[in-house]
Write the structure tokens for this entry.
Amino acid sequence: MSNKINRLLLTGAAGGLGKVLRPRLAPLANKLRLSDVANLGDAGPNEELMPCDLGDFDAMLTLLDGVDSVVHLGGMSIDGAFEPILNANIRGVYNLYEAARLKGTKRILFASSNHVVGFHKQSERLDADALLRPDGNYGISKVFGEAASRFYFDRYGIETVCMRIGSSYPKPIDRRMMSTWLSFDDLTNLVTCALHAPEVGHTIVYGASDNTPSWWDNSKAAHLGWTPKDSSEPFRAEMEASAVHLPADDLAMQYQGGGFVKLGPFPHK
């Protein structure tokens, strides 16, 4: 891929991580197209604002017109009832990939989640081939997204980097996040590497900083050239002093998905 992308699409641009990445991605593209169902504010110098419901296929076709690469953060980011997750995370992902196929988009960075493997024990160390064990409706939707992206690469050659993002916040706030925390700088560098790596095929990478202890092995994503620089360790004392400490037999202390493994069941809608 060329050093500067002609038109880069960022979905979910009004969300938490979308707001973080919006100014950081702008220098990577001649045009940064921003989409969300929420208010996107005013357009910057090289920005295009295109509000879009991921569940609307015709709107997605328009959204993908002329797009070279996508950073797909759009969708529901919390667990809950199935219907909203279905529209945004399942129907929306299908619409994204089918629109990308029809419009000729070649690379997608898909914001997957650690919750596709949330029912693995915290004592396990996982790589890209770990058995999928989602911990809720949200995790199930991300499993669908990973499967769809695999199909669209095998059948149509659309490259995808599935970023199994851990916990990307200003700082870790509990014991689990000491392992899953992903700093904003490391997230930015991951996205940059995934956009510019010469070939990515279909890659799964765990999005976590250089934390201790570490649950995830990214050796099978080494071709991305991404090496996290930050660590949760400098926050340990602050976290220990302020976090709620759960008993060792609490499910959130046993499984990688943390509190997600205890949520639900949810109403259908």
Remarks:
- The chain has a mean pLDDT of 97.
